[in-house]
Design goal:
This protein is an alpha+beta fold. It contains seven helices and 15 strands. The protein has three domains: 55 residues, RNA-binding S4 domain (Structural Genomics Hypothetical 15.5 Kd Protein In mrcA-pckA Intergenic Region, Chain A); 94 residues, Alpha-Beta Plaits (2-Layer Sandwich); 79 residues, Alpha-Beta Plaits (2-Layer Sandwich), CATH 3.30.70. Helix 1 crosses helix 2. The model has no long low-confidence stretch (mean pLDDT 93).
Length: 246
Amino acid sequence: MSDCMRLDRFLSFMGCGTRGEVRDALRAGRVTLEGRTERDGGRRIDAQGARVTFDGNPLAYKPHRHLMMNKPAGVLTAARDARQPTVLDLLAPLYRACGCMPVGRLDKDTEGLLLLTSDGELAHRLLAPKRHVDKVYFAQVDGPLGDADAQAFAEGLQLSDFQAMPARLEILHSAPEGAEARVTVQEGKFHQVKRMFAARGVQVTHLKRLCVGPVPLDPALKPGAYRELTDAELAALEHCVRAGPP
């Protein structure tokens, strides 16, 4: 999106309402531009430099927004669904309006770190297997795990429709009735982690994503909560995808 735009478009982009709601707000004198009430939605502004307030609150423009969410179980990683809640339903209007979309998918019953961004190029680079961006999961399974399973993960498991890239399986606890492990993969195919365990004869009973690349899930985020990435987190992600193959 260009940084030079109509005021009404800027207000919609900032999550201040639909086109009609923004028009009504302008007419009601709820918007100021450079310290003065502005009612002309067609006025073109420099989104980066203009001083705009809505209901007295300054609006800080960013060309892109980047979020981390602690995705709860039972919510779809999708833009919309007619019957089930999606991760976008959890977002404030500002983030929906500026085009934040999930970076990849977590299964409906999988919890944990989900990145959302309005920067499609960054999302593409984070998802590309050739970039070798680690995704780390905590998994609980319904049977024991051992060294042979870790070796199989490291060699790359052959699944029914593709050969998985080598992955790291760190067994945290194992007993006949179940095990806990950390899994690091560089792909994100449909149900991949679950299918990898199934190929070793155990079923996943709980799965939570802990990290994407250098960014871990903020432990202060409760399920369903989210926040914007810090400048340091964003810089680390951008460095991570720049450092990989083109």
